[in-house]
Amino acid sequence: MNRDTETNEASIHALRSLSDARPSPAAERRMVARALASMPHGKPARRWILRPLAVAGGLAAVAALFTVLALPGIREAPSPHPQLAATTEPGTGSVRQAVDQPTSFTVGAHSVHIDVHGSLRVEHAEANAIDLRVVQGRAYFEVEPLGPGQSFKVRTEQVLVEVVGTRFSVESRGRCSVVAVEEGRVRVTDHRGNRDHLSAGNQRQFCSDGDAAAELLREALVLVSQGRELERAARLLSRYRADHPGGVLEEEALFHLCLVKARLGETSAALELADEFRQRFPGSDRAERLGHWLDEAAP
Amino acid sequence: MLLQACKAGDPAAWEQLFRQRNGQLYRWAILLGLQPGEAEDAVQEVLMIASRRIETCRAEEALTSWLFQITRRVVSNARRNAWWKRAVLGDSTPEPAFDHDESGDVARELAVRDCLAKLPRAQAEALILMEIEGLTREEVAETLGIPAGTVASRVRLAKEAFRTHWVDEAPLPTEPGLSWGKR
């Protein structure tokens, strides 16, 4: 077989190797969940039904727009916590803090209450679109039912909460955020795009720890697979192991760290890691392979 | 059966369709040049368009080509909309998009995607459908709306170009641990 034919076959083989390539199970779940969440409920509307509905919807939207424009927007309002200090009107970009006592304010028809030591930034405040960020601490929200085209969002680094008229709280603490719903229902989207709903009485914590760890390992494995910046890959893998001892991806990290050390010429370190791997994961088929390489590498 | 159930608005059928097809749609979006995050968004959009226009899919056998046609439009739009990012930031480093057992497979995936990205779009589409998706020439012709003879010539040119790029991009032998010491 000549070299051209070999290259030809290798390239076609490489192409065909992707014929059953799939996204990760997590990505699949995410895509299906997002698609289902975006589906209109029930039977899809036929065009002849859709048209009058669209007209009616348009009229409703116009009516809602007039209603919304008539709202005073962000205003001073009776506080749901009258014992608290009255506050001034917050505008887009402003930050509200509850330094040594809780504070309350209203945005349109909705009430916001910030616990002591909490801080909240008004990302966007228009009559039909309110977007708030809990920078730190806990904030409570009482949201009136929203009209068509209106939105009320609260976000932290880890989660986006979208509302349809409810009472809930969002707490941002370090790498985690906690969303608790007292009444009604909210839609939450974490920082990776996973969406879910939380109902009254439920609360959930959203943390970026696990994802950050996975990202660390992923970055290292990309470098390993590309055979570049191996010193950096080794540092990332070591950091992953130090930060997450006993993590679910420990086997992966240890195995690749061993290989990277070997490729960097740090044979004694690689041998030690391989030994550690065999002791910690004796049932892994990789232990057998590492054992084979160890035997080959042994003087 | 599934198509009919979807047309009838059965939510369970839609869920089944989404579960069956999302991996394939994602693969197409990646191979047509999107990054993983963009591809996930594109899949969602394709599925949404599919749910709105399912009436226009004439038969179950045509579902794959019908979905591919939607996907290539969505991907084209996504790439067009992101042109300014590429202009300002340059092409981002490709990220692995698929689930692999071995790190060597990741290198091969990235090399294949890189080679495909260097092909003219029409050639890449024909090559993907024929060599990766395993469609016949006639099926590719129907999917792309071109004569079978044109498919044959596009695939031939695509293979030649792909092979040329492959010589430069092919990953080294994959198992990194097999060679002890610095390479």
Write the layout of secondary structure elements.
The complex is a heterodimer of chains A (299) and B (183).
Chain A: H1 3-16, H2 25-38, H3 47-70, E1 95-97, E2 103-107, E3 110-114, E4 119-126, E5 129-142, E6 151-155, E7 159-163, E8 167-173, E9 176-183, E10 185-190, E11 195-199, E12 203-207, H4 209-226, H5 230-243, H6 250-263, H7 267-280, H8 285-297
Parallel strand pairs in A: 5-6
Antiparallel strand pairs in A: 1-4, 2-3, 3-5, 4-5, 5-8, 6-7, 7-10, 8-9, 9-12, 10-11
Helix pairs in contact in A: 4-5, 5-6, 6-7, 7-8
Chain B: H1 2-7, H2 11-31, H3 36-53, H4 63-81, H5 83-89, H6 103-117, H7 121-132, H8 137-144, H9 148-169
Folded structure, characterized:
The complex is a heterodimer of chains A (299) and B (183). Chain A is an alpha+beta fold. Helix content of chain A is 42%, strand content 25%. In chain A, strands 1, 2, 3, 4, 5, 6, 7, 8, 9, 10, 11 and 12 form a twelve-stranded mixed sheet that branches. In chain A, α5 packs antiparallel against α6, α6 packs antiparallel against α7 and α7 runs antiparallel to α8. The longest helix of chain A is centred in the N-terminal third of the chain and has 24 residues, at 47-70. The two termini of chain A are 38 Å apart. With 183 residues, chain B is mostly helical. Helix content of chain B is 70%, strand content 0%. The chains are: A alpha+beta (299), B mainly alpha (183). At the A-B interface, α1, α2, α4, α6 and α8 of A face α2, α3, α6, α7 and α9 of B.
